[in-house]
């Protein structure tokens, strides 16, 4: 009977396969014919007649069978395909070791953290999106620490001169005349295995996007120094990973809609808003000596604003970010009451136009729900007139 097998490799034996079944053959003739088949980009033919076995080359399709034929059983399953040790090591790090390197304060799910680590190890461009104060920059910095890689930070939203920040400047000296000075970004992209954080990319000037197009393109990966003599081209070093952060949404009025061609150069990882339980866990880690009930109340207030934003017709235009939540809790830790802390950290986030129908009133109602009624802290309701009933407050939350 004749069988056509795919050649996996040739070592001291010839290692072949049909589907998931692997076979190993010994002998100089088998090795000789297999090497000839590899040169011709062909397969190995195996002719078995009783105890006799003959090898040859064949351009025919590989044999198919559900059950290994009796004639091939003695050669079956004696070979395990070689394992790519480098790939196996990388997978082990991503799926087993990397989670333990994630900071406890970074409330990023295991899946997204492993995806972030894998993207960096594969040299992908990563864009962290999510609400303001959700931990995008923190996640990028945590990644650099976890992988023990050189880290460079550029706030693109704060620069008014993208060319100076990303390329460099031309200067004049009395001694040497006109000369070009490279930017820190040029030095960063030439650092092997560097992690380069492009913060606030959605606030960057469009010229910055144009400059970054070739830098971020996997098929190009270079930066042209237009200002320098002869306009040299700087190639991005091996293993460099770019991580951008962006706020996307109508409420971020100072941001720009990112060009689709630029966006397509990134792997996008979205930072989720924390649940009440995760928010409470984070605040307790930061302020372990705080009153646990007060921390729970803060987490409930913050979570309620996020749930309200998910409703069909939300009564507020934004939610309380984790950054604001941390400041809220820190004031309580420093001895301020819940009402006082909310007054300086939460209330200013919401418009007070509209009187009793305003966003500010809604938030005050929400905070009042968590203030004991028999304390001086209950400042929202007056003795002369109870502006809101318990039912109003319950409905508002």
Name the features.
alpha/beta; Rossmann fold; 3 domains; 14 helices; 14 strands; 19% strand
Overview of this protein structure:
There is one protein chain. The protein has 397 residues and is an alpha/beta fold. It folds into three domains: 2-75; 87-271, P-loop containing nucleotide triphosphate hydrolases (Rossmann fold, 3-Layer(aba) Sandwich), CATH 3.40.50.300; 276-396, no CATH class. Helix content is 36%, strand content 19%. It is built from 14 helices and 14 strands. It has helices at residues 28-39, 85-97, 110-121, 136-147, 162-166, 184-189, 206-216, 260-263, 276-286, 292-309, 322-333, 338-345, 359-368, 390-396, and strands spanning 2-10, 14-18, 21-25, 43-49, 52-58, 126-130, 151-155, 168-173, 177-182, 195-199, 222-224, 233-235, 241-246, 267-271. A five-stranded antiparallel beta sheet has the order 3-2-1-4-5, covered by helices on one side. A five-stranded parallel beta sheet has the order 7-10-13-6-14. Strand 8 (168-173) and strand 9 form a beta hairpin. Helix 11 runs antiparallel to helix 12. It is flat and about 95 Å long. It starts with a strand and ends with a helix. Residues 378-385 have low confidence and may be disordered.
